[in-house]
Every structure is written in C-alpha cells, then in structure tokens.
User: Fold this.
Amino acid sequence: MRVGVFICHCGNNIAGTIDVARVAEETRKLPGVVYATNYMYTCSEPGQAEIKQTIAREGLNRVVVAACSPRMHEVTFRRTVEKAGLNRYLFEMANIREHVSWIGEDREANTQKAIEAVRMAVAKAIRNRPLVSSSFAVNKKVLVIGAGVAGMQAALDCAEGGLETIVVEKSPSVGGMMARLDKTFPTIDCSICILGPKMVDLVQHERIRLHAYAEVEDVKGYVGNYQVKIRKKTTYVDWTKCTGCGVCMEKCPGKNAYDHFNCGVSPTRAINIPFPQAIPKKARIDPQFCRQFTKGKCGVCAKVCPTKAINYEMEDEIVSEDVGAIVVATGYGLLDLERLPEYGAGRYPDVITGIQYERLLNASGPTAGHIVRPSDGTEPKTLVFVSCAGSRDKSIGVPYCSNFCCMYIAKQAILTKDHLPDSQSYVFYMDIRAPGKGYDEFTRRAQEEYGARYIRGRVSRIYPKGKKMVVKGADTLLGTQVEIEADLVVLATAATAAPGASMLAEKLHISYDTNGFYVESHPKLRPVETNTAGVYLAGAAQGPKDIPASVSQGSAAAAKVLSLLSRDALESDPAIAHVNAAACVGCLKCLKTCPFQAIKEEDLRGKKVAAVIETVCAGCGVCTSTCPCGAIQLEHFTDNQILAEVNALCRM
Amino acid sequence: MGAINPTVDRERDFMSEVVKESGENPILCYQCGNCTAGCPYTEFFDHPVHRIMRLIQAGQREAVMASKAIWLCASCETCTTRCPCEIDVAHIMDTLRAMALREKKCAVRDVLTFYDAFLASLKKHGRIFEMGILMRYNLLSGHVFADADLGPKVLAKGLISFLPRNIRGRDEVARIFKKFDEKRR
Amino acid sequence: MADKRSYPYYEGCSLEGTAASYDSSLRLVMKSLGAALEEPPDWSCCGSTPAHAVDHLLAAALAARNLAIVEGMGSTTLVTPCPSCLSALKKAHGRMARNGAFKEEVNGLLDVPYRCTVAAKSALQVIYEDMGLEEVARPVTTAIPGLRVAPYYGCILNRPPALACFDDPENPVSMDLILKAVGVEVVDFAFKVECCGAAFGVPKGEIVHRLSAKVLDLALDAGANCIAVACPLCQQNLDLRQGQVNAAMGTSFNIPVLYFSQIMGLTYGYSPEQLGIDKHIVSAGALISTREPVEKAARAMGAGQKEAV
Amino acid sequence: MPDVGGKELRIVGFLCNWCSYGGADTAGVARFKQPTDLRIIRVPCSGRVDPLFVVKALLSGADGVLVSGCHPRDCHYSDGNFYARRRLEMLKRFLPFIGIDDRRFHYTWISASEGQRWQQTVTSFTRQIHELGPLKRVEEARAL
Assistant:
C-alpha cells in the first residue's frame, strides 16, 4: 500500500488556525503512508500537477487530500488522480476547512483534529477499491415545471438547442407573475409587450409541448431517465375544440367568480379566459362559482358555445412523460394579508397589495388602467406605499428581504405620477435596496423627478378614518411619528415560497430551506443545480428574484440541461450496492426496504438471492444496513470502510 | 451630544447590564422605527423609543438614564406587540426606569411622586386609598389643585371614599416592602 | 344551563372605589350567567403600574401574595375585571414560572410562598370562553335600540399576545361578539386597543387629554354614540376626564362610557341604578331611556346570526 | 462560540452527505464557532448508519455519538431517513442494556441550509457529553 497525502493551506483559510506542517509530519508516521506534504493551494493548476507528478514519482496507489469540503472539490481531485492513471475511487478527501479550521479558534485543538481527520481518510483510502462506472443511455427530453418568465426562457433555450421540451404550467395560461405586471423597472417598458412574444414563441415552437392547467403528480427514475406523471386538471372545456372566442364568458350568468389573474381586484365570470393575451387562449369553468355545479342547473355556456366544447362531465387526466432532465421554475407566492393584522388583515378595501396595484395600473386590467379606490371608485390623491410589509419580520417568520419590492415601489410611484399628475405619493422604507445596474439612479428619479416623498421608517398601524386610511408611521431620521391620511395604501407584501413548493420538492427529492425556497447545490458555483442529478432550478423558486435575474437563471439552467443531454450516454456512479450471492440467504429484507425498487429477486442455481438493478440503484445504502448477514454492500461505503474510519477515530 | 467613543468600556458595559437586567437583547434591534411609529407617547418623549434602543446599543448610559421617555412610557405594550425583532421593548423601558431609580435619577418628578404616593398608600393600607393618594400627590408635587375640578363631580356621585379600607394582612404587605428595601440596599 | 361555575374573583382596588359600578354590574351579570364569584380572603393591591414601574421584584411580590392566597383557596384560575391587575398578576406568574431563581427571590419577600399554579383570566375572557355566546344570549330580556356601541378593549387586556394568550392583539373581537350576542348594535371601531393615557391622569393630565381625545374622536367617526370598556382606568380617563379633554382640546364630546358588563346587565333587564350607570359623569340616560322587551324567538334567531359573525 | 471547556472528549458524528454534512459545511462557511470534540464521518444517507457503527464507536473509545440526516420527507433518497429513525430509536432504547447512558447517543435532522442549527446541535450535545464526562465503560456497565 502506497498512500500519498497532500495537506492544503488554502492560503490562510486552513494554515491560519492549523499547523499544516505538523499534520504532514504526523501523517508520515501512519502505516501505508509513503508520502505526505503540505501545499499552498492544492486545487490550483500547479497544485494538481504536483499531485500527478508525485503519483508517478512515488508510485502512489492511494491519494488523500486534506483541504476543503469534498462537496467542494472531490470531483476536481478525482479527475486529477484519474489523469495520473489512478482509479478515481482510490482518492479520499479530509475536510479540514469547513469542519475544522473555520469553526475552531484553538490552533492546538484544530491541528489535532486535522491530524485525526487525515488518519481517518487514510484508513478509508487503504480499503478503497477501484470502481468502474458503466454507461447508460439518456432520454434527450427535458421537462420544465412552471411557465413564468424563468421557465419560458429555460424551455425556449432548451428547444432552440434541439431538445424535445415539455412544459407544465399549473394555471390556465403561461406568463406567471410577469404577465400581471404593468411596466418593468428600471426601463419602464411594458411587461406584457416584452413577455407576449415569448409566450407566443413557446406555444408555436415545434419542439415544445405545453401542458397548461396541469401539475406534476409523481416523479420516478434518475438522471437521464425520469418518468413523470402529470395531472391535467379538468377545465370542463374541450380545449381541442375551444377557439377562445369568449362568447361563453360574455353570456355566463355566474358573475362573481374570484379572478385569480387579477388577484381579486374585481370579480370575473364562472367560465373565463384569464386575460386577453392568455396562452393558450382557452376558457375554463371554475366549478366553485359555476351555477351548473353549485345549483345543478344553468348550461348557458354549453348552449352558446359555437364549437360545442363545454363538457360538464370532464375529469382530470393523467399523462406520462419520459425525460432526461427537469427544470424547476415554479416561482414565488405572496404573503397573505391576514398575517398583517396591524395593517387591517385585508379588511380595508383601500389597503391593497403591490401586485393588485399593478393590475389597477395595467391598461388591460379590470379598470383599464385607471387608478381608482376599490371602495368607491374615486381617484386617489394621496397614496402611501409601504415597503417590507411582512419582509424582514422575524415575528411572522419572514426574516429575509424580498429582493424586488424597493424597485417596484419606486416604479409604481413613478407610474402613479404619470397616471395622476396631481397626486402625491409617500414611500415608507427601512433601507432602499437597489444594487442592480441603473437601479439606484431609478429610485433617485422617483424622488427627484417624480416627487415621491420617501420616509425612512416602518409603518406601525393603518386604520380607517372617514373616507381616508390613516397610515401611522415613523420618520426615524427626524425621530418623529408620521401620520398620513391616505386615499389608497399599497403594501409591498413579502415574497414567499410558492404554494405547494415543499410538496413538489418531496416528489423531486430536492431540498428546500427553512423558508420553503429550493436549495441550490452550491450558493456560488452551482447556483442552478440541485443535489439531485438532472434536476435544475430557475427563477424565484430558489429565492425572491427580479426579472433579469430570473431570465439569466432560466438560460443558465437550460445551458446545464443542454450540456448534460449533449451526451448520448451518461456514466453511472459505480458507488452502488452489490450482492455477494454466496453470502445472501435470500431473506429479501433489502428488497422490501429499498426506496427505489432497485433490488430484484433472482434464482441462483435453485437458490433465492437478491440482485441489484445497477441503473436504478441510487446508492443510499439502506439495504446494506438492513442486511442481516452483510451480503449486500454499498461500494465505497462498505461496512469495513466505515468501521475502519470509526477505528481510526476511537482506537487510540 | 458630543462625538462618542464606542471603545470606552463603561459604555459597552451599559448594554450588557440592560441585557442582564431585562433578559432582552437590544442588539436585535435594526432601527426600523415600528416602536416609535406605534407608541402613543412618542409626541411626549424627549427621545423616541427607537432612539432609546439605539442609545443602549451605543452604550450611552447618561442620555438614557436622564431621558424623560423612560418615565413617560405607560407600558401599553404596543411596541412589544409589533416589534418585528420580537424584542420586549416595553419590558426594556421598565428595566431602564428601575435602573435609573437605583441611580437616583428621575427626569419626570411628578410621575415618580405619583408612584410613590400610590405605593405609600399600598404599603400603609394594603390596598389603594384613592383620596389619600391624590392628597399626598398634590402636597408632594406642589400641584395642590391637580384634578380639583373633578372633586365636585366625584363627590356628587360618591365615587370616592374618605376613609381608607385597611386589610388585616396589611403588616404582611408592609413586610414585603421592608424586606424589599433591605434587599435593594 | 351548564353546571354551576364558581371563580375566585380578584376585584382590585379601583372596583372598591371609582369603579364600583363595574363591580356591581359584573356581579349581577355573573349571577344571571349562573357563576358564583368568591373574593380571595384579605386580598391586597396587585401593585399595578407604579410597582412594576419601580421594580420587578417588588411588583412580582405584591402580585404573588394574592396568587398565593388563591392557591390557598385550592383553585387554579382567578378572574379579575381589571386589565391592570390582570397584567400585573400574569407578569408575576410568568416570570416566576420561567425563572426559578427569581421565584426564590420573590417568595423570599412573602410570608406564604407562591407555587405558580394559578392562571389569571379577565372577566371578559371567562365570559367569552367559559360561558360562550349562546349562554351569554340566554338571559336577555331587553333590547336597547338607541345604542350604537364602540367596543374599547384598552391596551393591555389582550397584549402582548405572548402574555395575554387571549383574542387578537390588533383587532380583538370577544367584546364585539358578546355585545352582539345580547342584541346590541356594535360599530367597527379601529381604536380598540389604542392607549387612553393609562395611569398618567393624575401626574400628566395633558397626555390623557390628547390620547383620550383621539379615542373619543374615532368612536364618533365610527358612528358610535357610546363606548363600552373593560377597564376602570379607561372608564375614568374617557368618562370622568371627558370634561377635562373638552376643556383642553377645545372639543365638545358628550359620549357615555359604559362598562361592557353594564350594557349586558341592561339587556338582562337590570335597572341602570342597579348597574350603577347613574354613577357615570357623562349621562347615558337619554341613550338607554327606550328599552323594550324582546320576544325569545326573535332573539334566538338574532343570537344565531351573531355567532355567524 | 466558546469551547465548552475542560479536556476534549471523543465524539463521533455520522452525517448524511446531502443534508447534514452540507449543514456542517454551511456552518463552517459562516464561521459558526463550535467545540472541537466532534469528528465527522460522511455517509451517503442516515439510512446507511448501521446501529452497529454507533455501538462499535461507543465501545471502542467514543464518549458520545451523534447521527444527523435530512428532515423527514426531505431525504435525498426519498425515505432513507425513515429507516434511520426507526433503527436509531430502537438503538437508543437498547443502549442502557449494554451499560451505556442513552444520553451519550443523539440523532437529529438538519438540512444543508441550517448552519446555525448545526452549531447549536453540536454545542449542546458536546456540552451534554461533557456533563456526563468520559465514558468509563466498566463502571457504567456495573451501574446496571
């Protein structure tokens, strides 16, 4: 056994609180270790060259690098040793940065800890076997979940790159939040004008198939070979026949349906097409408000429909799609006003949310772009915008900043002045967060050119007085209270994880953080990957984001998918379970516990034994710790290897 | 207030003292101003609540102990109820008042005089004798005719009695005060 | 009618003095609701604002003495009409229960130590939670058509939520629902929990004048002709000092301020004198002059609707 | 984060690669200071942790063992951590029978984003082990 160990300084990150020289010196005493050194930046190009040369010079057959977390550079160094002709699974890594030098101040204790971490890695390395991965074919199709701007961008880029692309959107039309916006910051260009064409491209692209008003039901399989079940929710309208003429909507007597697209600013019909530019432009019945369903009789739409598309008996339909990769772009949700009792908890009609105000501003919105008070339809003169309505508020479980509110409030203040020249806008803010290109200038324009009055302080209470809404805030810079009698109050409610985000995460086996947003593989270097191979993130599903950032991520995710699926075959991770048929007693406990149904029963000369389906095994090792006789072992994490680590730590 | 030197130790101690006394952590305050915005008393304060919190963070003992605000806070709990950082602000104000008192500081005499009159009555009778408090307060505060206008109304309605009601256990209550004074001495 | 309830009843000093009518009306209402009130023997003042304003140890001790007495009565709940007492008692209990050292310290000042087994509740909470709206509606015999009430809870009856653990801290509804249940018209009042000036009436009158004026003003704005309160201090500031408010602020408020228990009592058929309504400075006489009997059927329906609120 | 003081004891942690090992990394990246007693062994899934490993560690020198995996329903291998929970709960009940105080063994769920939570877990568990002191295998066995 000829083990070589490289201890990394990582500049001062490790050497700062660990005596790396001593770690090397102690390591040399370990049985099997023929070479140990410390190096400034092991991951650097010369650092890797050093490893390769040493392997050749010293004839190493095992390599250990003590540096950062294997989650960071294991892949890097595996490639390095492979280039030097060593099987990549003969490499081990000891994490002496994240788990040692960065969390302990005591140099002596850290050094000792590092020495043991290395000893443990060496013990394991010695028991590592060369493993060779087999290759398997990939399905060159991609599924994009969510057709907001991020999802659409990802889908279009994938399709342009030549991939069959399937898009699942849970609402009746594509477009997401952006389709609801009036203008966009900091350019004030019309949101739907720039989004509309993309929406059209999406449905017209010959390599894109859209399932609108559908949701992902179930996901099976693994990178390159996912089987996805999609629930197409019933619309009670046969979309193959519906032409989107809109006659049904005109004639529908159910006039008080909740308007999801307009966020409840005004009611819509029980059968409706969500908005003029909707894609697909198809009608859908909301059974909650449809008389045919609530009263059991009506049938007006069925009578007036020129193509006889209405079908009250229609039911959900499950379709299956096989894909090689998945992009999750499910966007974000908004904080429920009921969580803000001091702002009226939604009881006051003239206290509305930012997205509702977008609909008021929007020419194709319910008021045709006229800003009026929901209570009495009059034009407001005094408007108050409240930022951080729920954001940065631990007490209601939203400790984070919602990212884009500062900017859209500035935009809305500007647009308000355009719509109502003799109106006055006030903006309560804690900090103005405008780090993007041209962003800060934009917030300045709102104040300097459009006369929005910015007040540095939080709003404590909003209550009605006569026809006005009294906004009770503070000006912390003056150290005074501020009371404004407003005609209309707009709350920048916190951006939250999309409803149902966690359920989808569980179907996809990706993780989500304490706030419900999906967790990327690495915050800096793998921003659109997840820890599940073949599943990628785009847009606000990963955390609140504005349009430019969402679009960039959409393209980034697409690039990742394209590079993954550019290969005809993928290498399987050989660190999977293997059955020693001789030792197997055929109890098949493993078969019952395997989370992936990756174990099948086999007949070995009349003897019942377990066998692993290599492509399906994900390498969790549940079977290994289930097997009563150690017959099934997870490669690279065998009982012997782990016990060797335990011994290296405990036997002293 | 002149330029402050955050490195002077005495100033740093102040915050840890407040933390220790109140069990609350003022460093959690990010100065959003919600407390000041909601406080019914801001207009009467010399320092608005959020600034009191800031002064603690900055270790400005003198300014805080000398402030009127801590005496004009009525513990209405609005700040505590709405603080996004979940700080029990009202309790911190309470604590500051007690600390000031121990430093023999009080920026709003009348309030303290009233509290003293109240507690004196409580100590003497075991319960509150409103008439007694009022008279004692008027004498000590020098506002001899405070609320005199209410006199006729109150008397006409027989709302207030001229005789204190003593409870049997009033020396027991007095003992509480006695032991307390010894403890704090 | 549910089986007979009985509560240790800590009335607090104010209800022996300026707020006697809160006491008398509450006792009558509780009688109609079939609940017996037991005075803890030889209770003493809870210390109220002045005590905790001066020192938490002293405040806790003064309150804990009474909690210990209730323990002596072998009871685990205590009812008090006065929010000031309520918060003093709850704060003392909370700190002692949470912090063993503090508990020792406090008990060191007491003759009879407090074992932290008593939960204090406001009279409002007990009526709302223990009796419930249906029972509250049952004894009603009388309607008062003239009344449009702004329910005013005051600042500490249900705040801070972590301490009070009762009703919504920003928009409480218990008193609204109770008054609606007894058939009284209630207006949507935005200043339910805004502070009236609390204990500053004597030492800093001007504060009370400013703050109480805002409350009275918004009550009028909400279309009320009467304010219902659950706190002796609120009543004092809004009623007894209403004249001072008018003088200081140049206003001309003339709004009767009744205890919610007095309004309940009226609908239960008790006379204004029994309920001590004549003791208030701003007369409610005109408002409540017309009182007509209600026939059960109509009321049952009415109550039914209220619960839907 | 101050060290819990006293001589360092031997604590072994088995962390699943996807959540808890990541959480420990997150804590490191954020420089959340922790006591230095803990040594971490990386396993693919908490479901891979054979109770035998824990017992082996405790019998051969460890004073405490910590196992941490993904939150229930957030498991990278869909439900590996459910199997872990079942086994580890059994183990916790079984430890006293071999003369080991079950407070020396703790299992928990920590996600890759919960660096702070990891710091708290390590600190409190280390403190607990220091309160129990070094595992004197013979005495604790006799104490039965």
